[in-house]
Write a structure and sequence with these properties.
4 domains, 16 strands, five-stranded antiparallel β-sheet, four-stranded parallel β-sheet, 573 residues, alpha/beta
Length: 573
């Protein structure tokens, strides 16, 4: 199916889509919401509810542009709910504008609605069904097929107006044409995927963008529009509009009730399951306000009453042009619906209790049933966890209690003093370590200035960023030194002050510094003494060396004179 798609980067772990999904067809895993296509009924509630625009609808615009640019025969079926998106235009003006875009033929989906109403009339006259549920809304059909399969027997075996009209256009204008449905309905894209006549779907928002991109104004009517003769069928998009298109006489065998809004439709279906109800013709539309409040109208702000009045005005309008060939054609509009339910295993009670215990749900008073996770009760959430549709961490009260418990453990066991201060540095809260470090037993310090305990220095040093880190301060009594960090809590304007008692460390540092100083003094004294000894040794060595030198010189001279006399004696001989 892959019609509602997700921009993962935008999904912010808020669970809002799950809370708004009445059939819980969204799986939450790895911090991301994912559509469970087997269960999805394409109501569009998650798309509308998403605050981060993380969901978007698969678009057929580029494919349609391609057909038009290649000059293919493309016809458009325009839903009568267009008055919600284009309140200043009638069908003739819409027809002219659409033809400027390149559409060869423009007709009203109300043509198909007329044929469908005729089929409903035949069913009521035949009176062979205990109850009849209209099949004009694809979301209601999917709801019954996937979530109330026992009630498939009550679905009117008739195609939707859009499918009927597409079938008529291909019958009259050729099987090779392309048929585009333009409307506010996401689930029409599902019908298009079934390959039964609709080739593509244009949401009204997309159509608005196409007009804007081509600078097409809705100011001039088509000179030869293919307007429907039975304009009463334009009532289809408002609550009760389907019933109003069927003559009273044909409705005599059934009590006709119009229900709009998915929650109300589910309530009626649940009643049909549990109770022996018969003799009803249920006009069901998943959107509150029916089609004029469809999910494809999210960006349009036309109020319901104004849209309804515009629909009624168009239905009361007489047309003077010849009826389109499709309005008078006779075809087979029957359809078969079937059970499409995906069976999911339900865990036994022991397994459910085991899952609940993992998130602290052990007694009735811990079953908050707050719905923050998206499920109405803790029990249903536990079943979803078992089925792989939810995660334990989705329980916000549990995660909050866990975070608070962890914070309390840290605060109670940290050796550092922690103070929560208001914007004026007055004490709001403090932990047990603060009481111990600062001996805070003689009076109540809540509301008093933190400077009484921590001094002024750190608070005076706070900069524009609202913090000062690791500043050592000797407190007023001079006997205690603390290392302080002060941080502004931006969301509240309060401050968090953390004080580490470093008195022992400071004393040890001073002791080490004194030892270093004494060691240096001792070393200097040893060096000085060694220098004196060296000088004395050098002096003694200097005297001895002089005497030795004189003796050796004398000996040398004496020896030199002896050699000269001996040489003289030899010469005389």
């Amino acid at each position: 199916m892959d019609i509602i798609q997700l921009t993962e980067a935008n999904c912010k772990n808020c669970h809002k889509c799950i809370r708004n999904c009445l059939v819980k067809s969204i799986r939450f895993s790895n911090e991301q919401a994912k559509i469970i296509e087997d269960d999805c009924i394409l109501c569009g509630h998650c798309f509308i509810a998403c605050p981060q625009n993380a969901k978007y609808i698969k678009s057929d615009v580029e494919e349609i542009r391609g057909w038009l640019s290649r000059g293919e025969d493309v016809y458009i079926s325009l839903a009568p709910s267009f008055v919600s998106a284009f309140p200043d235009a009638d069908f003739a003006k819409m027809s002219a504008a659409l033809k400027k875009l390149g559409f060869k033929g423009v007709e009203e989906t109300a043509i198909g609605a007329g044929h469908v109403s005729d089929e409903f009339g035949k069913l009521m006259e035949a009176h062979e069904m205990d109850n009849i549920i209209t099949t004009c809304c694809p979301t209601i059909v999917l709801l019954v097929e996937k979530h109330f399969p026992e009630l498939v027997k009550y679905l009117a075996p008739v195609v939707s107006p859009a499918m009927a009209h597409a079938k008529l256009m291909k019958e009259k204008y050729g099987g090779g044409i392309k048929v585009v449905f333009a409307g506010p309905c996401i689930s029409k894209k599902y019908e298009a995927q079934q390959n039964k006549g609709i080739d593509a779907v244009l949401m009204f928002e997309e159509l608005h963008d196409l007009f804007r991109d081509r600078s097409i104004q809705l100011d001039r009517p088509d000179e030869s529009p293919s307007e429907i003769a039975g304009t009463v069928n334009r009532l289809y998009p408002i609550p009760g509009g389907i019933i109003d298109t069927i003559p009273q006489k044909r409705r005599e065998n059934y009590k006709c009730v119009a229900i709009d809004g998915l929650d109300r439709c589910i309530e009626i279906l649940q009643s049909l399951e549990k109770n022996a109800i018969s003799g009803y013709f249920f006009e069901m539309n998943s959107c509150a306000g029916s089609c004029v409040e469809g999910p494809g109208l999210r960006d349009f702000e036309a109020p319901f009453l104004l849209a309804k009045e515009n629909v009624v005005a168009q239905a009361n309008k007489e047309t003077r042009t010849p009826a389109p060939a499709t309005e008078c054609a006779v075809l087979d509009f029957s359809e078969t619906y079937r059970n499409k339910q995906t069976i999911r295993q339900i865990p036994d009670e022991a397994t459910i209790r085991s899952i609940l215990m993992q998130i602290g749900k052990t007694t009735p008073d811990t079953m908050y049933n707050c719905g923050a996770c998206g499920y109405p009760t803790c029990r249903e959430k536990a079943i979803a966890v078992y089925q792989g549709k939810a995660e334990l961490r989705m329980c916000i009260p549990y995660m909050r209690e866990k975070a608070e418990s962890m914070s309390n453990v840290i605060l109670d066991n940290t050796p550092n003093a922690i103070f929560l201060l208001d914007a004026d540095f007055n004490i709001v809260e403090f932990n047990a370590a603060a009481v111990k470090i600062f001996n805070m037993t003689d009076l109540n310090y809540t509301g008093l200035p933190a400077q009484m305990l921590l001094g002024n220095e750190a608070f005076e040093a706070i900069g524009e960023d609202g913090q000062v880190c690791d500043m050592r301060t000797t407190l007023m009594d001079g006997a205690q030194t603390v290392e302080q960090t002060v941080i502004r809590i931006s969301d509240t304007g309060n401050y968090l002050a953390i004080a580490k008692d470093v008195t022992s460390e400071e004393r040890q540092n001073k002791k080490l510094a004194k030892m270093r100083e004494e060691t240096m003094e001792t070393a200097q004294r040893v060096i000085d003494k060694q220098m004196r000894v060296a000088q004395e040794i050098a002096s003694l060595l200097g005297e001895t060396t002089g005497e030795t030198k004189a003796a050796l010189t004398k000996l040398k001279k004496s020896m030199s004179e002896g050699e000269s006399n001996e040489s003289l004696h030899r010469n005389e001989l």
